[in-house]
Design brief:
The chain is an alpha+beta fold. It has eight helices and ten strands. The protein is rod-shaped. The N terminus is likely disordered.
């Protein structure tokens, strides 16, 4: 019996050995849980994962919402919304549409005189633009007195172009010796160069090789001469050599 009891006692499980690893494993489990929770709560990837797990049945995650809000345009303000629910407000105003072939768009910032203005181009550059094939009387030329019909030409161009989107068409040479951009200027599809000639506020002047529309411009000038309007209303004031203020005295 004694030997049997000893064998039984020696072969049975030792309760102390069986439970000796439990405290250590429990502590490790707690630490691992704390680390995982910390990663989920205090790191961006963890929060994103947690949001995805919690919101997988509730729509888009916070990260996706943030990305969409950055990429989407801001909601229209009251001024941006078309009145009466009409979509016509989204239609570009005349002159703001895509330029015709061979032309570039520009916005007129201010005018210098009747034939010159400052414009901002689509590429972000800022240019002094001189209208081709015409000359208006002087108003701001250093050492030159204001010439007859110069203020009228300046005011006409200012009212017509300031703040408007125009199209610029070039000829053979794009710049002059003063680095001004040389162009035929279109507003709402109409050639502004021609309008100044029609009003008698300019004369035709040719600097070759830029002479694409010289024949048409001379026809318009001849009509203004015939009507004796603007610079042609004063005998001897304007001719193919320039303006002669003494004729107006």
């Amino acid at each position: 019996m004694t030997s049997s009891g000893n064998r039984g006692s020696g072969s049975g499980p030792d309760p102390q050995r069986k439970n000796s690893g439990r405290p250590q494993r429990s502590l490790l489990s707690i630490l691992a849980t704390v680390v995982v929770l910390g990663l989920l709560l205090f790191t961006d990837p963890g929060r994103n994962l947690l949001d995805s797990l919690l919101g997988e049945n509730g729509g888009t995650s916070q990260t996706e919402d943030t990305q969409q809000s950055r990429q989407s345009p801001a909601p229209a303000t009251t001024e941006d919304k078309p009145q009466g629910g009409s979509q016509q407000a989204d239609t570009p105003e005349p002159g703001a549409q895509e330029p015709a072939d061979g032309r570039i768009a520009a916005t007129v910032d201010r005018t210098v005189d009747g034939d010159t203005f400052i414009a901002n181009l689509e590429d972000g550059s800022r240019e002094r633009v001189r209208m081709l094939l015409l000359d208006t009387p002087e108003t701001k030329k250093e050492g030159t007195a204001v010439q007859p019909f110069g203020p009228e030409a300046s005011e006409y161009t200012k009212k017509l172009l300031t703040g408007r989107t125009v199209e610029l068409e070039f000829d053979e040479e794009q710049r002059d010796q003063y680095d001004r951009m040389l162009a035929y200027v279109y507003l709402d599809g109409e050639l502004v160069n021609e309008q100044l000639l029609e009003q008698g506020l300019a004369r035709v002047v040719v600097y070759r090789p830029n002479d694409k529309y010289v024949d048409e411009f001379r026809e318009i000038q001849n009509e203004a001469k015939r009507k004796k309007i603007g610079v042609w209303s004063i005998e001897g004031y304007a001719d193919n050599r320039g303006f002669h203020p003494e004729a107006a005295e």
